[in-house]
């Protein structure tokens, strides 16, 4: 068949259930319109689109949110497959996400085949039905344009997208969909062989079922299993049973049954016989989160916090989940590094270590035995497990951890034979599945017994690779300046949670002072999960408790001036936030000339939660972004000087944090001109490209460093208005007394203190107001109590 030039401008999604509606929502997130269709209910005459409408409404209300912002839902058009099927002739990609029954899918394909164009991509979101079975009876064009696109739930947040082609899939389609999935949808794309349940569910469901069987046989409780096999073993907090509840026990049974029926040659086929306890739960409607009870049950009683009950696997009754403690887990929690946590558990001698070793051996042997049958390489297996289940390490990365620690390997696999693939990597490879060669990560190719470079997205940039290539320009314990090439440097923070300390402030000054001597642009970013959790609260609290006011003032002034240096840098500065950028982290972003943010960035000025106000220039910058500068005021664009103060007050006083980078633009933490990336793997690449564009614009006279902006603020009269609002909230019990104290200080800063509404204020004057309010609040016992509560419990104190 001739190569087809594919493009995706509009998509049709058939099936408005949880997955279909969520897929349509994520398409809207990245700006792609879709037509969401479902059936017409029997005897329905008034609202023939009711099923699709209900699906979209549920997506709009879902938690966690399916949409970056609810405005995006305008890109989703609803309909039904009786009246609107012909409209699918106008879309570029049709995603089938209907019920997991082969006969229903094939009947739908029969109807679709009559309206498809030669360029229409058709895919199924099936979680396990083999692709070759789905296309039985279809014509050449349909077969050439068909593949499986298996999204994971929740679609917006789970990185994994499994692509499963058939022998008839057009060779041009797979690379196109991989590129589209990576660059446009922001997914971690894994190519799977056409085997039952593909890669992630094949290994993941085996691991779950083997674990639950061991729990039943050896008397482990639901709570014990999830405590043992959670973060201490490099897995998410939901661990095993909570993950099953989130996915749905009916889904688990369906996947397991599908594997049992369609994988007769699997050596561990009998493991996929679902235990009777799970069958009974499903028959009773205990399906997990969606039915309100599964392995866990949340009980809400009026006037008191909800209680989490756990299922007794023997009696099927619920009881309070008791906290369990084991020496090995206690020791593992002392490490931030997942490798060290896992080794600590596996090397232990308590009940937790026994289960960890048994289940680890089960899953690793299964992965190493099945990998050549279900995947083209070990990288696909590891990426599927990390992206599909949020594991810290993939199966072969855990194998490497054990291969590098022979005593742990022996203890974990005592009495068991190592799989042939493991023996081969020890005898014909270099002893591990991954090696580093000249700063490049390589994997063991089991088809040729040689090492090959690990595939990465085009242009992928990682800071560890740059540092290993001797690109470090300057560093201290808190931050590093790295040469990214092409005249661009990257300022990387690497404190715990990238909290801002003296070292980071020192490096900001260095980067802005020395950077222009050898670079034409600067990126502020890192490879961590979070951009920055803000200022080092522990140091602030200790200083306040010791009365070290000069030290605190110097630290705040240092952050203010460092941010001002970023803002007025002689070369362009581009922020590259991902994850959380809170408090001081948000302030750093707001002072950069441009931002390239990961779409999943949670940005906000949250200082009021610990009893202070933003004092690194956050108040000042939000006022400017709301139009408090003289130019906007004189042009009458903001409705007078009070409007910017009021809007900034509403945002900061509520400690508002964006639920996405798109919402951060709506809140003005990001500019409308800032750019977004949806894939973490290419964020630094994209930030560097933006930096180069600005540098080239500067060279052409089309970009200039920022100039100071004076502001017109409304003064004491407006402050009284805001304070009256605070007093009303206090009288109705909606805020605490100390909330009101903090809000009054905030109101004073945002209205300009004692200024005249006709007299311009400089940026420095507003910074002085910020610093004064911050120091005053730090001296209050209730603020110090709030800081201590956050540090001790991670939860805000309402005092």
From TrEMBL:
Residue ranges annotated for the 3-hydroxyacyl-CoA dehydrogenase C-terminal domain, each copy included: 198-297
Pathway, per record: Lipid metabolism; fatty acid beta-oxidation
Catalytic activity annotation: a (3S)-3-hydroxyacyl-CoA + NAD(+) = a 3-oxoacyl-CoA + NADH + H(+)
One Gene Ontology biological process: fatty acid beta-oxidation
Stored SUPFAM superfamilies: 6-phosphogluconate dehydrogenase C-terminal domain-like, ClpP/crotonase, NAD(P)-binding Rossmann-fold domains
Every 3-hydroxyacyl-CoA dehydrogenase NAD binding domain range: 10-195
Keywords, ordered alphabetically: Fatty acid metabolism, Lipid degradation, Lipid metabolism, NAD, Oxidoreductase
GO MF, one example: NAD+ binding
InterPro entries (UniProt xref): 3-OHacyl-CoA_DH_NAD-bd, 3HC_DH_C, 6-PGluconate_DH-like_C_sf, ClpP/crotonase-like_dom_sf, Enoyl-CoA_hydra/iso, NAD(P)-bd_dom_sf
Pfam families noted in UniProt: 3HCDH (PF00725), 3HCDH_N (PF02737), ECH_1 (PF00378)
PANTHER family xref list: 3-HYDROXYACYL-COA DEHYDROGENASE FAMILY PROTEIN, 3-HYDROXYACYL-COA DEHYDROGENASE-RELATED
Family as reported in the entry's similarity comment: Belongs to the 3-hydroxyacyl-CoA dehydrogenase family.
Name of the protein in question: Enoyl-CoA hydratase
Organism annotation: Ktedonospora formicarum
